[in-house]
Write a structure and sequence with these properties.
By secondary structure, this protein is α+β, with helices and mostly antiparallel strands. It has six helices and 13 strands.
Length: about 300
């Protein structure tokens, strides 16, 4: 947990948005409404305020730092400077200080701050996982403009921080939510397809980098005559390049002779040499026995009778 807090703090310092000194003051003027059928990205032309993120079963200090990281990321997207959290709480006053994300009180805060949209969120724990829930409410109508919820995260610092950054884009700039794939091969002239769409032949232009790919898994197919095709699933991450090195193997190469030899081992007593040997031994024993039985007998005549020996 301490490592995660320290990592978030470092990213906050590196990516803190710059607030212009000539920014219009909050709390004055009519609240502009978004045009009908307005998309999420059109909100970036309007003034936006970020109400606090609530902690549900998680360290409040960590949630505050994740909120600051979200503000920094949203500050890069918004074309107008964000109101500081301290100023927003002052404008909201004591009567709205307990607002926990209901549309009505968020719209009331937006009117006091003279902004078009109010964004808030929660970070909750489910077992060992984190879930980030962020939503944007239009001040003029008090209606929910956009809402996004992350998949359960296992508490990895990189995953949680990336989820916060992705939430800012998914909420108000979904068209800018993409990454890239870099495809490199040791062959020239191989056909490359991504998600069934032809990209050209290797080497691809731009160093093989395919930009503006939606986040998630993509199917890569590389083929060339005389070579076994290459198929792989490539994961694309937010504002990152996923490298893939393709090595095609010749399809005509056969390892070994290609033949399958079946060897049947027979018992030794079925072998020819064993049978012949047994036959010879049997004949020899028969000759010896027969010779002994066919020889002359010697008889001795005594007073007690006759005794014969072979």
């Amino acid at each position: 947990m301490r490592r995660l807090i320290a990592l978030v703090t470092g990213l906050m310092i590196a990516g803190a948005p710059i607030v212009r000194a000539d920014a219009p003051a909050a709390g004055s003027g009519a609240v502009p409404a978004l045009p009908a059928e307005a998309g999420p990205e059109e909100a970036l032309d309007k003034k936006i305020a970020v109400w606090r993120f609530d902690a549900l079963g998680i360290d409040p200090e960590l949630v505050q730092r994740l909120e600051a990281l979200f503000r920094a990321e949203l500050g890069r997207l918004d074309k107008q400077p964000l109101i500081a959290r301290r100023d927003l709480e002052r404008l909201a006053g004591a009567e709205l200080a307990a607002c926990t994300g209901e549309e009505r009180c968020l719209a009331a805060i937006g009117k006091k701050a003279n902004v078009a949209i109010v964004v808030t969120g929660t970070v909750a724990t489910i077992g060992d996982n984190y879930v980030l829930d962020v939503k944007a409410v239009e001040t003029a109508s008090g209606k929910l403009l956009q809402r996004t919820q992350s998949d359960p995260l296992r508490g990895s610092p990189d995953d949680l921080i990336e989820s916060v950054r992705v939430a800012a884009y998914k909420l108000l700039a979904p068209d800018q939510l993409h990454g890239a794939i870099q495809i490199q091969s040791d062959l020239i002239g191989a056909s490359v397809e991504l998600d069934g769409k032809a990209l050209g032949k290797t080497p691809l232009g731009g160093g093989g980098v395919v930009k503006n790919q939606p986040l998630g898994a993509h199917k890569l197919h590389v083929a060339m005559a005389g070579y076994a095709p290459f198929d792989d699933d490539v994961d694309v991450h937010f504002q990152k390049v996923s490298p893939v090195i393709v090595r095609l193997l010749p399809s005509t190469v056969v390892l070994g002779t290609g033949k399958t030899l079946v060897v049947t081992r027979k018992p030794f007593y079925t072998r020819t040499w064993f049978l012949v040997g047994v036959g010879v031994v049997a004949v020899g024993l028969g000759v010896v026995i027969g010779a002994r039985n066919s020889g002359p007998s010697v008889c001795t005549i005594t007073a007690n009778g006759n005794t014969c020996t072979p």
